[in-house]
Design a protein that fits this description.
490 residues, 4-stranded mixed β-sheet, two-stranded antiparallel ribbon
Length: 490
C-alpha cells in the first residue's frame, strides 16, 4: 500500500514578465529591422502612434482604480509570468564562450546578417531562352538549375533528379537525357556553372579560353590527367611525369589559379555588393577623445494615442454602465497597457544598447583609438555583463546582431570578444593579437617553403606566447589559411 507523504520543498524558478520578454526580443533586432518591427506593432495596436510624447500624453494605470465593477473577477487580469526555461530556445545560447581558458580558441565567425540570399538560380533561368529547348526540355532544365547549390555545382546524382521530375512535374526521363541538357546549361554564364566536381568546373572554364596557347593546353593536361597531384601541390611529380620545365609548369598553374572554383558565388557577389550594413553605433575620434553615439533610428519617438486615452477616461467616469461596457473597457485597457509596455521596452532597449557599447568601448579603449587589432584585450561576455550589472544573455543578444562604425571600419560587436592567452611574463593577451601575428608570419613566409604549424608554434613560443601546436592549427583554420603544403608556390 502506498502512503501519502507531506513535505516542504524549495524550488528556484526564474520568471520573466511580458515586458521583459518584449525587451529581450527587441534587443535581438538590429537597427535595420527595428522600423519594420515598430510598423508591425502599430498595425496590431491602434493605441500606439509615432511622435514625441508630451506631459499631457502620459498614460497611467491609476485610472483603472476608478472603474467600479460588481464581479469578483478583475476587469483586466495580469498575464501569467512565463518561465525562463520555456522562453529561451537553444539557438539563443551564446555561440561564443563566456569563460576563459588557455587551450580553447574563441568561435569566431564573421557573419553579416543583412546579406541577401543569392538569387543566382533566377539569373540562370533568365538565360535559358538562349538554348534550343522544347517545353519538356525547358522544364527539365528548370529542375536542374533548381538543383544547383549556392556555389553553382550540382552535387546530387542525376538519377535523384530523375525521381524529382517524376514526382514534382510528372516528367519521365533518364539520366542520359539530363546529361545532355546539363551540358547545354554548362554553356551559360558564368563559365564553370553546373559542374559536378571541382575538376569538371575548372575544365569547363578552361575550355572557353584560347586553346591555341601552350599554357592553356598544358593546364588542360594537368587537370585531366594529374588533378590529384595538382590538388596536393605535388608540382615536382607533375613536371617529372609530363617532362616539362619548371617555367612551363608555372605558366600552366598560373592559368588554373585564374579560374573561379565557385562560379555561383560570382553571380551572388554583385547582389551582395549593393547591400549595406547599417551601424547601430558610431564611434568618432576627435583629437584622441572617443565619442559614442547611438544611431538615431535606434531611438524612434513613440506615444500613446490620445483618442484611446480619452476613451479610457470616458469609461472610467461612466460608472453607471461599467458592467455593460466590460468588454470594451478590457479591450481599451489591454491596448493602452500594451502600448505603454512597448514604449518602455524601446526606451530600455536604447539604454541597454548604449551602456553595453559604452562599456565595450572603454574596455577596448586602446584599440578604438589606434585601430591596431593587437591592442584588443581578451574580453568575454561575462566581463561586460559584470560591469553593466546585466545578465550574460542580455550582452549576448546585443553583441550577436549589432554593428559599430569606427574610424577603421564597421564591425559586428561579437568580433571584439575573444579569449585570452598568457605570455611568459604572465601577462594576458587577446587571442586576436596571436591571430594577427600568425597572419603576419604566414603573409611574409617564403612561399616555396611555407611555414608548418610546428614552425609557427615555435615562432610564437619564441615571442613569449604560451600556445600549443593544436591551437595554432585551429587559429590558422579560423583565419581560412590552408596548411603549409597547400600554400606552396613555384
Amino acid at each position: 500500500m502506498s502512503s501519502l507523504r507531506q513535505g516542504l520543498h524549495q524550488k528556484l524558478l526564474q520568471k520573466l514578465s511580458p515586458q521583459q520578454i518584449q525587451l529581450m526580443k527587441l534587443l535581438q533586432i538590429p537597427v535595420a529591422s527595428l522600423e519594420q518591427r515598430i510598423k508591425e506593432e502599430m498595425q496590431e495596436n491602434p493605441a500606439l502612434e509615432e511622435g514625441a510624447e508630451t506631459d499631457e500624453d502620459e498614460y497611467s494605470t491609476d485610472e483603472d482604480e476608478k472603474i467600479d465593477t460588481d464581479d469578483d473577477e478583475e476587469l483586466s487580469e495580469r498575464e501569467e509570468e512565463i518561465s525562463l526555461d520555456e522562453y529561451l530556445e537553444d539557438d539563443e545560447i551564446p555561440d561564443y564562450k563566456t569563460s576563459v581558458n588557455n587551450s580553447s580558441p574563441d568561435d569566431e565567425r564573421r557573419e553579416i546578417p543583412m546579406s541577401a540570399q543569392s538569387n543566382f538560380q533566377d539569373q540562370l533561368l533568365s538565360q535559358l531562352y538562349q538554348l534550343d529547348l522544347d517545353d519538356r526540355e525547358y522544364h527539365i532544365a528548370e529542375q536542374l538549375v533548381g538543383s544547383l547549390d549556392d556555389d553553382g555545382y550540382i552535387r546530387r546524382e542525376l538519377s535523384a533528379v530523375v525521381d524529382d521530375l517524376v514526382f514534382a512535374q510528372n516528367i519521365s526521363t533518364q539520366p542520359e537525357e539530363l546529361e545532355h541538357i546539363l551540358k547545354k546549361i554548362q554553356s551559360l554564364d558564368p563559365p564553370g556553372i553546373g559542374a559536378r566536381s571541382l575538376q569538371e568546373c575548372l575544365l569547363l572554364q578552361l575550355q572557353r579560353r584560347d586553346a591555341s596557347r601552350d599554357s592553356v593546353q598544358l593546364a588542360m593536361k594537368i587537370l585531366q590527367g594529374h588533378f590529384d597531384e595538382f590538388s596536393k601541390k605535388h608540382y615536382e611529380k607533375i613536371a617529372r611525369e609530363l617532362e616539362i620545365t619548371e617555367e612551363d609548369l608555372k605558366k600552366a598553374i598560373g592559368e588554373i589559379l585564374k579560374l573561379n572554383p565557385r562560379p555561383g558565388n560570382t553571380m551572388s557577389q554583385g547582389q551582395r555588393s549593393v547591400e549595406h550594413v547599417i551601424p547601430d553605433f558610431i564611434i568618432t575620434n576627435t583629437d584622441g577623445k572617443l565619442e559614442l553615439t547611438l544611431n538615431s533610428r535606434n531611438a524612434p519617438e513613440m506615444r500613446i494615442s490620445r483618442d484611446y486615452k480619452e476613451m479610457m477616461d470616458h469609461y472610467s467616469k461612466d460608472k453607471k454602465h461599467a458592467k455593460a461596457n466590460r468588454d470594451a473597457i478590457q479591450f481599451v485597457k489591454q491596448k493602452l497597457d500594451s502600448a505603454k509596455w512597448f514604449i518602455d521596452a524601446l526606451k530600455q532597449r536604447q539604454h541597454t544598447l548604449f551602456e553595453t557599447m559604452r562599456t565595450i568601448m572603454e574596455y577596448q579603449m586602446e584599440y578604438f583609438i589606434e585601430g591596431d587589432t593587437r591592442k584588443l584585450k581578451k574580453m568575454v561576455l561575462r566581463d561586460i555583463a559584470e560591469k553593466i550589472g546585466m545578465d550574460i544573455s542580455t550582452v549576448s543578444r546585443v553583441a550577436n546582431s549589432k554593428y559599430v562604425q569606427t574610424p577603421f571600419g564597421t564591425f559586428l560587436l561579437k568580433s571584439f570578444f575573444s579569449e585570452g592567452l598568457q605570455t611568459d611574463s604572465g601577462e594576458e593577451v587577446s587571442s586576436k593579437e596571436v591571430k594577427q601575428i600568425l597572419s603576419d608570419c604566414i603573409g611574409s613566409e617564403d612561399k616555396r617553403k611555407p611555414l608548418t604549424d610546428d614552425a609557427l608554434t615555435k615562432i610564437l613560443n619564441d615571442k613569449g606566447y604560451n600556445i600549443a601546436r593544436r591551437t595554432v592549427a585551429k587559429y590558422r583554420e579560423m583565419l581560412d589559411i590552408p596548411v603549409a603544403r597547400l600554400r606552396k608556390e613555384l
